Amino acid sequence: MMKHPITSMLAAALLLVSGSSLAATPEQAIADALKQKLGLPAEAIAESPVTGLYEVITPQGIFYVTADGKKLVHGAIYDLDDGMTNLTEQRMSGVRQELLAKVSDTVIEFKAKDEKYVVNVFTDITCGYCRKLHDDMEAYNAMGITIRYLAFPRGGERSKSWTDMQDVWCAKDPRAAMTAAKGGGKVDHVTCADGKKVAEHYALGMTFGVNGTPAMVLDNGAMVPGYLPPERLLKTLQTQ
């Protein structure tokens, strides 16, 4: 029995549509490849400044991946026609600003009375320079610099610092608990939902590329590793 020509055309059209819908987009191919081969979720995918490469935001920072998901580049892209502007860092600064805005209600804040700048600081209560920074809090605040702490226990999830920082975030007065902990004092053990903020902050720090504490993130999203005395931090903020 012969098929009607129109029926055959409709069948062919349906097959074409079906086949095209099954074809993976570059974004899907990249997301699948990173998940299957590296166990990394792709949080955002967009075309990069380099033709043929896609920019992928992951929990481990920014990667550049080919459209077929088969090749990966880890590193910075610079614009030679714009004074060697680091386009990767420029993009990452924007990402930091966006993500920090989402966790602004989970920080422990030491607010300046006459606030001119806000600096987010990834901190560890056992870190010597973190303690030095905290000792200078009054000076930072007097210069109009608000400090917002995020937790980054360097020893990871199984460290005592991780548990102690959960206690700080769960304390009735987290600011006082932070001061006590950084002064070598004991903080009462408390279990609460806010303790989960330590894991959230730690994961955020990994996305930002934090590999030590303190790590400061300025208003414009730029990251400054290490401790800066109040005067130097103020000058850095004034010229950011």
- Quick one: CATH superfamily of the largest domain? Glutaredoxin
CATH class (first level) name of the largest domain: Alpha Beta
> Which strand order do you get reading across the main beta sheet?
7-9-8-10-11
> Which blocks of ≥5 consecutive residues have pLDDT under 50?
9-21
* Relative helix content: 40-55%
- CATH topology name of the largest domain, in short, is Glutaredoxin
Radius of gyration: 24 Å
Reading the helices and strands in chain order gives HHEEEEEEHEEHHEHHHEEH
Structural class of the secondary structure composition? alpha+beta
- Annotated CATH architecture of the largest domain: 3-Layer(aba) Sandwich
Please describe the topology of this protein.
Elements: H1 5-22, H2 26-38, E1 44-47, E2 53-58, E3 61-66, E4 72-73, E5 78-79, E6 85-86, H3 87-102, E7 108-110, E8 117-123, H4 128-135, H5 137-142, E9 145-151, H6 160-170, H7 174-182, H8 196-208, E10 215-217, E11 223-225, H9 230-238
Parallel strand pairs: 8-9
Antiparallel strand pairs: 1-2, 2-3, 3-4, 5-6, 7-9, 8-10, 10-11
Helix pairs in contact: 6-7
